[in-house]
Amino acid sequence: MQIVYQLLFLTALGVAVWLFTRRALGIRRNILLGRNVELNDRPAERWKNLLLLAFGQKKMFRNPLVAVLHFFVYAGFIIINIEILEIMIDGLAGTHRIFAPVLGRLYLVLIGCFEILAVLVAVSCAIFLVRRNILKLKRFISKDLDGWPRSDANYILLTEIVLMLLFLTMNAADQALQARGAEHYITTGDFWVTSQFAPLFSGLSDSALIAVERGAWWLHILGVLAFLNYLPFSKHLHIILAFPNAYYTDLRPKGKMENMPAIQQEVLYAMQPELAANAPVSDTVPKFGAKDVQDLTWKNLLDAYACTECGRCSAACPATQTGKALSPRLIMMKTRDRLEEVGRNIRQHGSATTDNKSLLRDHITEEELRACTTCNACVEECPVSINPLHIILQMRRHLVMEESSAPQEWNMMFSNIENNMAPWKFSPDDRDAWIQ
Amino acid sequence: MQIKTMAEYFANGETPEVLFWVGCAGSFDQRAQKITRAFAAILDKAGIPFAILGKEEGCTGDPARRAGNEFLFQMMAYSNIQLLNNYGVKSIVTACPHCFNTFRNEYPQLGGTYEVVHHATYLQQLIDGGRIKMKEGGTFKGKKITYHDSCYLGRANGIYEAPRQVLETLDAELVEMKRCKSKGLCCGAGGAQMFKEEEKGNTRVNFARGHEAVATDASVIAANCPFCMTMLTDGVKEAGKEEEVKVLDIAEMIEQNMQ
Ligand code: SF4
Ligand code: SF4
After folding, report:
1. How confident is the model at residue A272 (pLDDT cuts 50, 70, 90)?
2. Three-class SS of residue B221?
3. Which residue of B has its CA nearest to A374?
C-alpha cells in the first residue's frame, strides 16, 4: 500500500513541477519579447535594493501596521516552506517526520516556530480579507479591480488560510497519535501550539485519527502544489518577481527620461550635414516610441508580471485622484493582459501579431496617456519597484512621433518652441523684457 | 539693477561666477517675471557676478520631450548645448525645477555637462556661506507658512530639505500639508499639462492641491517653480482664499527680508 502512495506522490509532484516550469518558461519568453536595455551597472546598489526593497520590504513600511502584517504573511509563508522539504522527503521515501530523530530537540523548536508563524499568517490573511471586503479600503474597491482581479486577491488569502489550517490540523492529529503510541508516529515531544488542541481528537478512533492526519497531510501538500501553479496566473506572482524587479530597478534619478540615440543622430546630421555624408546607411526604419508590448523594454514587461495590483500607485496619482481616466495600476494590468494575449497568439499561431491589436487603443487609450503629469508619485510609491510612468512616456512618443497625434494645444506649443524658442507665442527678442 | 548677458562678459574676456538660466516661464509669464526679478536682485545684493543669456536663451525642450516630441527636444538641446559650450559655461543656477532637471539629468548624455543648482539649493548655500544676511524679525515672522514640493525638485531629484531650510531663516512657523515631501501632490502642470486643457475628470489637480494647502491655515504658500506658482494661485482662488492666502516663491520671500 505504502508504495502506491509513494507513486501517487511522485506523480503529483512531477506534474506540478512540469506545469510550473512550462508556464514559467512561457512568461520568460513573453518578457524577452521586450526591447533590450542594459540594467547590469552598479551591482552593489542593485544588491542593496534587492535586500532593502524585496527582502526588507522597505517601501511597505511607509505604513507600518500593514507592513508588519504583510511581513508575517511573507516571512511565515516562506519559512514554513522549509517544512515542505520534510514533507517531500517523507512523501517520496514513505517515511514519517524524517528530520525528527536527526534534529532531536531542535526539531521541536523548529516546528514550534513554524506553528506560531502559521497562526500569524492565518490571522494576518484574515485581517487582509476584512480590509478588502468589509472595511472596503478605497484602493481595493476601485473599479480597476472589477472581476477577476478582485476574486484573485480573495482566493489567494483564503488559500493561504486553508493551507495554514491544514498544516496545524495535521500536527494536532499527529500529537494525539503520538500520545496513543500509534505505530509509525514517532514521538517528538509537545509541539508548542498544536499540543494544546490534541485533546479535541480524543473521541476519535485510531484509524479515524490517522485518516484525519493523512488527509490533512495530503491536502496540505496537494494544496501547496496547486498554489504553486496558480501563482503564475495571478498577481501573487509578485512573491517571486519582486526580487528580480528590485534588482533591476532603474537607478537613475526619477526625473531623467530615457534618451533616444536614433533621434539624437538624426538631429546631429540635420544640424551638421557634413557628418551625415560619411554616416553608415542603415536599412531598418527605426520605430519611435511604443505602440505594443514588443516596443516596451523587457523591464517594463517584467514590471507588468510583478505588479501585485495593490493600487498604491493609483492612490497617489494626481490624475486618478481627480477622476481622470488614468490609473497607473491599470496601465500595468493592461500591459500584462496584452502581453498574455500576445503570448497566446505565439502559442496558437507561432506569431505575435496575428490579431491586429495593440497595447495602444485596444487596451490603453490616448486619454489615459494624456492625463499623466509625469509627477513620479506612482514610481515613488510602488513597493515592488515598478515604473508605470516609463510605459506612459514611451507610448506618448509613439503617438506624437509616429502618428502625429497630439492635442491641438500641444501642436501649438511645439510650433512655438520651434519658431520662438519658447512654448508660448512670444518673440525671442522679448526674453529679457523682465529687466526694468 | 544692471544685468549683463553672457555675450557681454564674453566680449570683455570675463567669466561670471554663475549663469542665471531664466527659463521660458521666468522670461515671459508676468507672475514668474517677478520671481526672476527677485532672484536677480538677490544675486545683485549678494554681490555675485552673474550673467543671463538674454535673447539667446531657448526653451530646454522639457515640455516637448514629456509630451513625446523627442525630435524637438533634441533640437533644442543641441542648440542650447552648443551655445553654452561655446561660452564655456560651467555653472548654472535656475529658478525653474524643469530646467534644472533637464540640465542635471538629460543634457550630460547629449554633451552638455554643467554644474547646475536650483535656486532653492543656491539660496541655502548663500545663506549658509553668509553671503545673504536676513533682517531681524522680517515680514514673515510668526506667520504660518506651508511649502509645496514641486515634483521636479522633490521626487524627480530628491531635494526636500534645502527649500525648507531657506524658509526657516524667515522665523515663520512652517506647517506641512497632509501630503508633502516624497508623498507630495503634484500641482497638475508637469508633463506638458501646463500647455493644454486637463483631461476630463471630477476636479482639477490644482484645485485639489489648492484646497489641501488652504486647509493648513497658512497665510503663505511657498513654491519653488513658476508652473506650481500659476497652478497654486488658481487653486487658492478657486478655494475663495485669494485675499487671505498668498502664493510666493521662496526667492521673493528671501528678497523681501534680506538686509
Ligand atoms: S507619473 Fe503620471 S501616472 Fe504616475 S502618478 Fe504621476 S500622473 Fe499618475
Ligand atoms: S504598480 Fe506597484 S504600486 Fe501600482 S498596483 Fe502594481 S504593485 Fe501596486
Report:
1. confident
2. strand
3. B191
